[in-house]
Known about the structure:
Elements: H1 28-35, E1 41-45, H2 52-59, E2 64-70, H3 73-83, E3 90-94, H4 100-104, E4 110-116, H5 121-124, H6 152-158, H7 161-172, H8 177-189, H9 197-208, H10 219-231, H11 237-247, E5 248-258, H12 261-274, E6 295-297, H13 307-312, E7 320-326
Parallel strand pairs: 1-2, 1-4, 2-3, 4-5
Antiparallel strand pairs: 5-7, 6-7
Amino acid sequence: xxxxxxxxxxxxxxxxxxxxxxxxxxxxxxxxxxxxxxxxxxxxxxxxxxxxxxxxxxxxxxxxxxxxxxxxxxxxxxxxxxxxxxxxxxxxxxxxxxxxxxxxxxxxxxxxxxxxxxxxxxxxxxxxxxxxxxxxxxxxxxxxxxxxxxxxxxxxxxxxxxxxxxxxxxxxxxxxxxxxxxxxxxxxxxxxxxxxxxxxxxxxxxxxxxxxxxxxxxxxxxxxxxxxxxxxxxxxxxxxxxxxxxxxxxxxxxxxxxxxxxxxxxxxxxxxxxxxxxxxxxxxxxxxxxxxxxxxxxxxxxxxxxxxxxxxxxxxxxxxxxxxxxx
Length: 327
């Protein structure tokens, strides 16, 4: 048995520390249908967050177990409280999904893996952690507050202008990245380095020429880019996809929810490679991408939120779900 069952588990705390009423996992119905946790077995939620997807997986069958992984210690504690009613069928680990092989070592084969690559409600709605410019807060953006490395303010204070522009262009797909980077460096050279979310949002708005009729604030892309850079969100995704697929048992499912085109492109190409489709550029005469047919892609096109979900949860508007099945 993967985990020892405990039928005397306590009931879930309804308030979940005040977060339960507002937490809406995206594409929940579609994810559960494609993961098929009613089959039972071990499922790994690589981005546990507040535990919404894991809760639905555990509710699908009394023979289902979940190992939840998250970098955010605060979210992890709230998820533990939410899921304590499942007793030994749920286990939580503070860590990064890229180390999935280490966390599941000795637990047996895996029936399914899920990663939801979005920022959790807890992080996005925090008034102190710097993920959103809705609040004036220190420009931090670390998903794991205890991790080493630069936070967003330190990154803007230490990196050269060219590197700041590259990050904003590549990770934020911001065409005005050079001008924004130049303004950031000019501020710090004048003895006014960017320290808070409001300072950065105001600077980007001025550099980009923000107009009230604009539907999306111009700082949105820059904030996304810095968050990705601070947390190294894309660097290990390819490796994770290969590792997770390797760990799956036959008929095991790998589901990935992305929120911007960079993530979705990596997932799409990774699934194609795992399905045996070469993803090398046409000009390369010999395949070097390592394509091997080990999975079947279950979603020919990404699954997106329907109108009902978008009305209840506007944050789902950019979510895309892709799923593959181990052959």
